[in-house]
Amino acid sequence: MPERLRRLLLQVLAAGAALLAISGIYSLYKVIGRALDDGQRDWWFIGTFLPRSTDRDMPPIRDIISEFNKPLREGGPELINLIWDASLFTLREALAGFVLGVIIGMAIAILLLRSRTLEKGTMPYVIASQTVPLIAITPIIVIWGRKNFGFLPWEWQDWMSVSLIAVYLTFFPVAVNGLRGLQSPDPDAKELMDSYAAGWWQTLWRLRLPASLPYLFPAFKIATLASIIGAIVGEISAAQSDGIGYLILDFASKYSTGPERLYASIIGAAVLGLLAAAVITLAEFAILVRRRQATRS
Amino acid sequence: MTETTKDPTSQSQGAVDILDLNKIFLPGNASQVIALTDINLSIAPRSFTTLIGPSGCGKSTLLRLIAGLIEPTEGSVTVNGKTANRARQDRDYGMAFQTASLFDWRTVRKNIELPLELLGWSRADRRKRTEEMLELVQLSEFVNSYPRELSGGMQQRVAIARALAFRPSLLLMDEPFGALDEMTREHMQTELLRMWQETGTTVIFITHSISEAVFLSTQVCVMSPRPGQITAKVDVDLGERTEETRDRDDFFDYIVQVREALRS
């Protein structure tokens, strides 16, 4: 246990050191960029290719941090609260998209597992679906959703379209890695199940699905981040004004009067992704570590 | 699937009866492979038969034909008076492989319970049988361990326990000790013979090792490749085996006999 604690402590220290290093490089470059902007064009040769920088291009770190505590307008909520609420909203959209995307991805993987021919014939379309630019299909999904999902027992809302965009990015890694994982058991294991005259679904449930988990968790990690990116991009296209995506778009358009806010909202989005990835990593640890580590009793 | 009892010459009382069996992979294809030809083999209940031969002689193919995992091109395989495929559906045999093929996400207990789950046994019955099987393979204290935590020999013992869990009358083993070191291997041979005697199971066992074949078997089938066929059958009568058996003269005589059959 102390060994584990020591390692955890080292990891936290390393993460802190990396954060400090990034801040250090950022601040250092600010000094160089400002000097260049002040006319130090003849600084050896670097002035010829390094871009100049002002406080507007790269606001000081302490300004970005202090921005979190300032209200956007007099008497309004502080920026950190705005970012927090917007992030939670986006997280919900992404989560709905992730869950549905995982279900669809696994369904595709199981379907393709049943037939080699189907796999060979269908995979190109699955791959092609991911090369279509998201920015192009997003408005289609939003407009389509508003117009055509009236038959649903609940009222279609724009955030659901945003979730659908997250689904679109999420199902792919799950389908590809899921299929590989389902195909991963070695011939002996499959023969063993055959020797028990186990049916296709029994083999799927007792052999293929558990064997696919080590392949699925990396896909889940990619899918988590993809679902958040999908939600952010979707919000921008759908003009869904409650999420972090819209917040970023709004601050970008007002960049000249407050660059710190854009930086702050980007940090918010990054933290959101980190937290989501951490949840998946914890789940992976809880489920897979049991297979690998000693639990002798 | 024809019933094979109509041929009066076939002794369908045997545990396994193989009659005029041929196996061709991709028949009619340019790249067809004649895997087995003219196989006739009768295996008595409670006997221990070893298939020995160089790589590519079709021993594994023969074992899979008996298991009903593949179909013969010509001839018939009868297990307990049924077609091999029927016997597989009826779970007449258990199988063990060179890779122990334990599921690494299941504990030892859950691995042994796997076939019982597929048979729809109740939780209490599964538990009870697993305890018995673990006692048989002498691994009771590892019931909650994961396969990763066990040595190669222990993993094989779990695999044997799993194969025997539903008490099949036949045990098919495809080089189960092939990946073990010599010391462990000899120990496992003694253990397997003890289990064989305790359970009265008919065993068909594939190996590359002549001494292993002689030490374990009541019947050694020597096979040769291209095309795969049984070239000699050596009946081994060594009585009850102990560690001293390995030093006896008649043990060496049998080894010489099998070795010569392999060379010819």
List the helices and strands and how they pair.
The complex is a heterodimer of chains A (297) and B (264).
Chain A: H1 2-37, H2 61-67, H3 79-114, H4 116-131, H5 134-148, H6 158-182, H7 187-195, H8 200-238, H9 244-253, H10 259-292
Helix pairs in contact in A: 2-10, 3-4, 3-6, 3-8, 3-10, 5-6, 5-8, 6-8, 8-9, 8-10, 9-10
Chain B: E1 16-25, E2 33-43, E3 48-52, H1 59-66, E4 74-79, E5 82-83, H2 84-89, E6 93-96, H3 108-118, H4 123-136, H5 152-164, E7 170-174, H6 182-199, E8 202-207, H7 210-216, E9 219-224, E10 229-235, H8 249-263
Parallel strand pairs in B: 3-8, 3-9, 6-7, 7-8
Antiparallel strand pairs in B: 1-2, 1-4, 4-5, 9-10
Q: What features would you highlight for this structure?
A:
heterodimer; A: 297 residues; mainly alpha; MetI-like fold; 2 domains; 10 helices; 0% strand; disordered C terminus; B: 264 residues; alpha/beta; 6-stranded mixed β-sheet; 4-stranded antiparallel β-sheet; 8 helices; 10 strands; 35% helix
CATH architecture identity of the largest domain in chain A: Orthogonal Bundle
Q: Which secondary-structure class do the elements of chain A indicate?
A: mainly alpha
Mean pLDDT of chain A: 86
**SSE string of chain A, helix = H, strand = E?**
HHHHHHHHHH
Radius of gyration of chain A, rounded?
Answer: 24 Å
Approximately what portion of the residues of chain A adopt beta-strand conformation? under 5%
**What can be said about the biggest beta sheet of chain B?**
6 strands, mixed
Give a quick account of the main beta sheet of chain A: strands, pairing sense, barrel closure. Answer: none
Say how many strands of chain B there are: 10
User: What is the count of distinct domains of chain A?
Assistant: 2
Number of strands of chain A: 0
Strand order of the largest sheet of chain B: 6-7-8-3-9-10
Corresponding CATH superfamily of the largest domain in chain A: MetI-like
Largest interface: A-B, 23 and 28 residues
Q: Span between N and C termini of chain A?
A: 18 Å
Q: Low-confidence parts of chain B lasting 5 or more residues at pLDDT below 50?
A: 1-12
- Spatial separation of the terminal alpha carbons of chain B: 36 Å
